[in-house]
């Protein structure tokens, strides 16, 4: 069993969650059960799946949870871009979170590849 608390990808995932919550506070109140709910749930899924994968006994299972985390990350990015298209958020507000998401994607992908190459 791995200690997820020591993984930079998990820590970075928590930063993403915090950032998403701060950004979604700026969404219109009518989006509370729409885009805001989707964004917060998808962002929470990133570090949650990393942590859950760490509890698994095999690298194959861990890799699968990393892939799910990556899917959630892409979901968050897409939803943020939708929020921008709908003019709920501006480009400046998105710049930092998109950089953080890009860093996280690279880190997750690197770990997935490391697991693949070790099999």
Summary?
With 119 residues, this protein is mostly helical. Helix content is 77%, strand content 0%. It is elongated, with a radius of gyration of 15 Å.
Cα Rg:
15 Å
Task: Please identify which CATH superfamily we are dealing with.
Answer: 23S rRNA-intervening sequence
Shape type: elongated
CATH domain fold name: de novo design (two linked rop proteins)
> Which CATH C-level class is it?
Mainly Alpha
Sheet having the most strands: none
Q: Span between N and C termini?
A: 17 Å
SS class: mainly alpha
Corresponding CATH architecture: Up-down Bundle
Q: What is the mean predicted local confidence, pLDDT? A: 95
How many separate domains? 1
Low-confidence stretches: none
Beta content: under 5%
Instruction: Report the order of strands and helices.
Output: HHHH
Q: Assign a percent range to the helix content.
A: over 70%
Helix segment tally: 4
Q: Report the strand count.
A: 0
């Amino acid at each position: 069993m791995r200690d997820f608390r020591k993984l930079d990808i998990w820590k970075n995932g928590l930063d993403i969650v915090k950032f998403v919550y701060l950004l979604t506070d700026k969404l219109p109140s009518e989006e509370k059960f729409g885009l805001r709910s989707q964004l917060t749930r998808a962002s929470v899924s990133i570090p949650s799946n990393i942590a859950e994968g760490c509890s698994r006994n095999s690298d194959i299972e861990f890799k699968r949870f990393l892939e799910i985390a990556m899917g959630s990350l892409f979901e968050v990015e897409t939803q943020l871009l939708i929020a921008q298209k709908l003019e709920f958020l501006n480009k400046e507000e998105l710049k930092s979170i998109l950089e953080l998401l890009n860093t996280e994607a690279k880190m997750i992908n690197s770990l997935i590849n490391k697991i693949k190459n070790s099999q």
